[in-house]
User: What shape does this take?
Amino acid sequence: MPSTPKGTRDFLPDVVRKRNYIFGTIRQVFEKYGYQPIETPAMENLETLTGKYGEEGDRLIFKILQRDQKLQKALRAALNDGEQYDGKLPEKDLADIALRYDLTVPFARFVVQHQNELSFPFRRYQIQPVWRADRPQKGRYREFFQCDADVVGTDSLRCEVEYCQIFDEVFTKLDLPVEIRLNNRKLLAALAEYIGEKDRLVQMTIAIDKLDKMPLEKVLEDLRCQEFPEDSLEKLKSFLEVTAKDFSNGELLDEVSRLLGESEEGIKGVEELRFILEKVESLGLDSAKVVLDLSLARGLNYYTGAIFEVRPLTENQVGSICGGGRYDDLTGIFGMKGMSGVGISFGADRIYDLLEAEGKFPEKETEGTKLLFVNFGETEADYCHEQLVKIRNAGIRAELYPDSAKMKKQMKYANDKQIPYVALVGENEMEGGTLTVKEMTSGEQLNMNVDELIKKLS
Amino acid sequence: MPSTPKGTRDFLPDVVRKRNYIFGTIRQVFEKYGYQPIETPAMENLETLTGKYGEEGDRLIFKILQRDQKLQKALRAALNDGEQYDGKLPEKDLADIALRYDLTVPFARFVVQHQNELSFPFRRYQIQPVWRADRPQKGRYREFFQCDADVVGTDSLRCEVEYCQIFDEVFTKLDLPVEIRLNNRKLLAALAEYIGEKDRLVQMTIAIDKLDKMPLEKVLEDLRCQEFPEDSLEKLKSFLEVTAKDFSNGELLDEVSRLLGESEEGIKGVEELRFILEKVESLGLDSAKVVLDLSLARGLNYYTGAIFEVRPLTENQVGSICGGGRYDDLTGIFGMKGMSGVGISFGADRIYDLLEAEGKFPEKETEGTKLLFVNFGETEADYCHEQLVKIRNAGIRAELYPDSAKMKKQMKYANDKQIPYVALVGENEMEGGTLTVKEMTSGEQLNMNVDELIKKLS
Assistant: This one.
């Protein structure tokens, strides 16, 4: 029996429709906020990708094998020196292109390559698959879609404000209650400075980023093992205890301001967060809550300002379903300096699982064929085919069972395909110019003409 | 300057929108005829793909390089036998997965793998990229989208009838006049029999398939070089001359029936074509013409019944823009016998080029942001941001320029992004609770409140 490669999936119609409902909802909101679609190739030059994801990431890039002479040349060059093979054949000679690992690096490459065709600030969204040679496990695949929006070429915090609106609008439409967690890299830097560990910002952050999964004492113990001095840990503890209290966002910012107010970065971080929170509050959100979370880090090395994370407020727990943040230098890796930006990403697979678990996929948005004509023979089929033209012209999805198979088989087909209405046309109907329409869930049968049917199904 | 790999393309927003207009139109029609979306992974196991596309095709498959130990093991195994490298390292050891080359083989694999989850006849469509390591040239890329519909598990010729309706509906919607050319493999077989060259069906067909590009004498000369005897060529010539006359489809079928009526296959082929043509005519098409073309072959080795091709009737000539046909044994390669089907494929890149050349992309379907608020400063921006909420709630795509940059820069941004309306809000507007709206093409400026604006833009 043939199968898909390890870690990859086929999507059957029902699943494609539900996925498209998610992507379509997100796309529609992105477009309303001025984000424009772009697409980049599945393949990038290997040199575009390597060195951008750390050693571990590089190892997970799928590379495309050289072909023909180039491949033979690479093998010969490395192997025909008369020595034993020493395991040092550079992979580079075997591959010079690779599958994209994410959408961010291709986007940076895109901005640099097309800088003279774009107008800045450039807002783009991109919904495409990426590939990673990760060990497959539940919920982790080797091919999955990313769903990103970014704006580059502006420092304006109004972009952050609008991302809160975008999160809110998408999850309101998807009928999922969520909270948007918000932090700022500058506060983390100020905190490291405050506890006297400015140079160990990353270690500190990695540790406190785990606060939603382990108790404070355990986090401090982690840092103790990394030889953070006791007075640093004491300061950190008191900071985290104070900021864990049940403050409003505003009160929490006042508190942070008091504690970190001597650091220039601290002041800047508080200012930025206050701006975002105030604007979001005055503009109003439909359903999402915005929560300050001073332990939120997410890919700290990358972000320089705001950090976002969205978590569902449902009984089903799936961790974060969106992330994002501001970066100061997206395109620097390709030699184009000073391109500040901010971006967000939706985790489509997790959102899918959540909507499924919560029963939140709307039937109407994900349904297929609405009406099946049962085929009783050539004469009846001719009659049905004519009706079909009218019904399809009215925009209704409808089909004729192509063969005059057994009734039972045709009804099973309608059931399997979840077609809600079946039309039965025999001699009586043909004489009367009507159709008998069966509603599959209730079993109710009604006789009507095609115009009445169109009205019913529209 | 970084770039995309050879033969691949970035798509900028304007192009993505236009492509999505094409895909969306086709998708909508497919769905109306009961076709359901599926998606398969970009990668397939190499063994799924090899041997399916002929030697030339196999050479063009992009393979994914093995990683880590598996790669090292493959190299060591082949090379550490102390001998000179003999160029015989099997590529198979270097790669066991590859990028799909088309959507047909993955679909066959899908049907076999999921046979117990599907209900037959199974109608699916699939719009996804494929990859071929072809030499790039004008209009030929290494990554391109295929856009296929197939139905498997039925012999009914009503499927062929509906494909004519689908072609018609898609190109009517796209406002492209086309002709649907139709043939049947059985007639080609009968013709080969008629000229006494039953065993050289393929050579004969390849030759006459060129009749739209070269004169009859040249085609016959080709066959003469392949040692077709003179009396065969004489018979072929008279057949092609007769059938090239200005017949109606019905008359042509009568003629063919007279000439090939002694062959069982000939009779069957005429019957099938007559059924399709009669049904299509009685159901009626909106704009497409259906034309019998007895020289049409398209991948003859594959098709067993009807053969389709769609050509534009525009001044801009781009060759065929769709193809398709019936096959008797799609899934036999994966051990599942007797699965007859028929499928069609739209050539999205050519359709794109044609719509562009003919100026047929509708502005409304491909436009982006509708309204830009110019940013004159924080106070004005606050006011604008509030209006934006109302405007977006009405479903209108609108944005605020994020920084209070120079007016000229902001207007250039609106121009570059082809935003048709710009809102200007200064002190007067804020006092009066209004907006000044500039129509970019006419330059006309009007003062109105936000409700009036929403009405204007909806």
Observations:
- Chain A is about 45% helix and 15% strand.
- The mean pLDDT of chain A is 93.
- The radius of gyration of chain A is 29 Å.
